[in-house]
Specification:
Elements lengths: L1 E10 L2 E7 L4 E5 L6 H12 L13 H17 L5 H14 L3 E8 L23 E10 L2 H9 L8 H12 E7 L2 E3 L3 H6 L2 E6 L15 H13 L4 H24 L1 H9 L1 E3 L2 E2 L11 H7 L4 E4 L2 E4 L5 H25 L5 E7 L7 H22 L3 E7 L2 H7 L14
Helix pairs in contact: 2-3, 4-5, 7-10, 7-11, 11-12, 12-13
Length: 410
């Protein structure tokens, strides 16, 4: 099961675009301010239940359409007394009023893929079809009601666009469809059972200064630990060692602090009301230790240098690899338990701090990693990368005619 196409309408710089998604790596290329980041943003907004879409997320070109729809409402809908004609205009307004739309087309294998999770999103049961569509629409709850509310606004000097900027959350909502069929129950759990999008943003917290509190690689290794801690014998050995250390410290705490504990137990208001008995115990959690206590060093000749002495290039590369491997390992477990079907990793500008040769090596190694996962575990992982790097484009063999520069309509 895999994504084959993504379409976006009326979102920020993306008025109307359609992108074919490759089986392994898809590169999104374009000049600055052409909408590369907007693609990732619209996916993250719709796939995160807690995120809210604001009026600023509508494309600038949609503002004129809002105004034209309101003119149609005023000049024709309100003026006509014919019920049939009024219903036609109502339907026209519902169809034409701007909506932010994200469409994700999925292809499945009828023989090898389980269709349990995706069944509600298959709208065409024709035998020759093997595709489903997840359709997200940020659209009015009641189009006519929206315009009526604008007409009844207390301050009549406020324009439609200004009013929408303040009131869009009240009148718009996200609807999810399987094809054209509205999905109403347990929407986000159903979506997450089909697709898991993971994002690595361009603003990664990496630093090569001496005063470096980010310790990004420590966090990266801690994330990786979380993905393997349930099935790895070495991890179990680590937990046993930590438990032994904890027991030893418990005994030492009691000896060292016995005097003060005895004094504390004698304090009280009267003989019947004393400070409760205090017991000190040490608790070790491997993930916390990896994140907060371990320091990473690099060997340079015979000298060990701290993490922040290695340079942003290597640190960035290691961080990217850790995140991608962690995402894949987590996905393997979820796939095995039938909790999700597709993993797509979104990477924004991975070339940051990478030498051109290292950029090409990165693409090559990512492709090999995907192939290995497919051959060893029969799991398909898709990666979408936004980039300015000609070296990555050359390595990936991207057709420049499919770049974002030619997709955005202005």
């Amino acid at each position: 099961m895999k994504i084959t196409k993504i379409k976006v309408q009326n979102f920020r710089l993306l008025d109307d675009i359609s992108i074919n998604i490759e089986d392994d790596i898809t590169l999104i290329v374009g000049k600055n301010n052409s909408g590369k980041t907007s693609l990732f943003e619209v996916i993250n907004l719709f796939f995160n239940e807690k995120n809210r879409i604001s009026f600023h997320d509508f494309s600038l070109n949609s503002h004129l359409v809002f105004e034209n729809c309101y003119t149609l409402y005023q000049d024709e809908f309100l003026s006509t007394k014919d019920d049939v004609q009024q219903e036609e205009i109502r339907n026209q307004l519902i169809n034409e009023i701007p909506k932010i739309v994200l469409s994700i087309q999925i292809e499945y294998d009828k023989v090898n893929d389980s269709l349990i999770n995706i069944s509600e999103f298959i709208s065409d049961l024709e035998e020759s079809r093997n595709d489903a569509t997840l359709l997200f629409k940020y659209q009015p709850k009641d189009t006519i009601g929206l315009f009526k509310s604008f007409d009844n606004r207390p301050n009549t000097e406020i324009t439609l666009i200004e009013w929408l900027n303040e009131n869009i959350l009240t009148h718009y909502k996200i609807n999810v469809f399987g094809g054209e069929n509205l999905i109403e129950d347990n929407i986000f759990s159903k979506i997450q059972s089909i697709i898991n999008f993971e994002t690595i943003q361009a603003s990664r917290k990496l630093d090569d200064t001496k005063i470096d509190n980010n310790r990004s690689l420590a966090l990266g290794f801690a994330d990786y630990y979380k993905t393997i801690n349930s099935e790895n014998n070495d991890v179990e050995d680590l937990k046993k060692s930590l438990l032994e250390t904890s027991n030893t410290l418990d005994s030492n705490y009691e000896k060292i602090l016995q005097t003060i504990l005895t004094k504390l137990s004698s304090f009280g208001i009267d003989k019947e009301i004393n400070i409760p008995e205090i017991i000190l115990k040490s608790k070790f959690d491997a993930e916390t230790i990896i994140k907060n206590n371990i320091k990473y060093y690099y060997k340079n000749g015979g000298i060990e240098l701290p993490e922040n002495y290695n340079g942003l290039g290597y640190s960035n590369l290691i961080f990217l690899v850790l995140k991608i491997v962690s995402f894949i390992e987590t996905f393997k477990k979820n796939k095995a338990s039938n909790t999700t079907e597709i993993l797509t990793i979104l990477i924004e500008e991975p070339e940051a701090h990478l030498h051109p040769q290292m950029q090409q090596v990165f693409i090559e190694q990512i492709r090999e990693t995907i192939k290995k996962v497919l051959s060893d575990d029969n799991i398909q992982v898709q990666i979408i990368i936004s980039t300015h790097s000609s070296h990555m484009i050359a390595e990936a063999g991207l057709n420049v005619q499919r770049s974002f520069e030619n997709c955005v309509l202005y």
